[in-house]
Amino acid sequence: MGMINFILSNLFMKKVFACSLFLCISATVLSQVVSTDKSSKIVSAITQDESAKPMNPEDYADINGTPFLSVAWGKGMLQLNNGTRLTDVDIQFNLVTNELYYKKDQSTIVIANNVLEFVISFQEKGKIEMQYYRSGYPVFEQKTNKTFYRVLSNGKNFHLLSFDYKAIEDTYTATVNHPAKSSFNAGFKYFVYDVRNNRLQSILMNQESLEKALPEMEIAIQQYIQLHNIKLHSEEEMIELIKNLNQ
Fold it and tell me: Is residue 189 over pLDDT 80?
């Protein structure tokens, strides 16, 4: 987790330097990285099981918008379940299926289920964004331990997570003269992961919900909120509180 802790410590404080940070991490931190021009065997190993398959470009042909995290492909760092890390890989994340893609030759391949975590850097509205996703969390309803969550804050006690998704919804129903139209609708749900008890809980962005999810931390949560005079209605406030609980 050393690589990821380094990324997260800089991600929220220095987002304006995300691009240079990404390059710096790639060059100096990943001691086990295999460069993409020498990693054909590793990349091939990613897709050896039956879950690896080419993406069908016709799957979303008649739907407005994109199912992906961003319109443009991003550069990524991947860590496999066996500890091997790859950097400078062209990747894309499908928010409809919660699947990670990479480019192989001219094809788009769905990566197999042996990726533990990844960081993706991409351009969005003229600026560089960098996000960290991780799997390996407990089963929760329809979500498995292969489900990727966006990590907002993590530490020795708790992780603050966001399950990002896109749903396909009808824009309007079909008529005699016009076929039905569908589009992608983005959403997210917050979760908190209790490391010690290996427990994943869904939360809302408020004090009552967090205290219900972490009853043993109720007094610490109340003290932090009173000390900092916050309402705990924003993602930034929740991130700082979780950081405090991890001290």
Answer: yes
Residues 6+ apart with CB under 8 A from 238: 152, 160, 190, 205, 210, 232
Give one word for 198, left, alpha or beta, with left for phi > 0 and alpha for psi -120 to 50. left
What 3-state class would DSSP assign to 94?
Answer: strand
**How far, in Å, CA of 186 to CA of 99, rounded?**
15
Q: Are residues 70 and 122 in contact, defined by beta-carbon separation less than 8 angstroms? A: yes
Query: Token pair of 145, please?
Result: 């331990």
Quick one: tokens of 226?
């009173």
* Residue 56 CB-density burial (10 A; 0-12 exposed, 13-18 middle, 19+ buried): exposed
Tens of pLDDT, residues 6-63: 454 545 444 434 444 444 444 333 334 444 444 455 455 565 544 556 666 667 878 9
Q: How many residues does the chain have?
A: 247
Could you tell me if 153 and 239 are in contact, meaning their C-beta atoms sit under 8 angstroms apart?
Answer: yes
Distance from C-alpha of 207 to C-alpha of 209, rounded to nearest angstrom: 6
CA atoms within 13 A on the CB side of 48: 8
Tell me the residue type at 118: F
Split at pLDDT 50, 70, 90, the class of 139 is very high
Mean pLDDT within 180-188: 90
Query: Measuring CA to CA, how many Å separate 97 from each of 59, 68, 111, 196?
Result: 12, 9, 12, 30
Question: Per DSSP, what are the bridge partners of residue 192?
Answer: 160, 201
CA–CA distance from 114 to each of 17, 51, 86, 245 (Å)? Answer: 30, 10, 13, 31
Kindly report the pTM of this predicted structure: 0.82
Please name the residues in contact with 143: beta carbons below 8 A apart, sequence gap of 6 or more.
137, 163
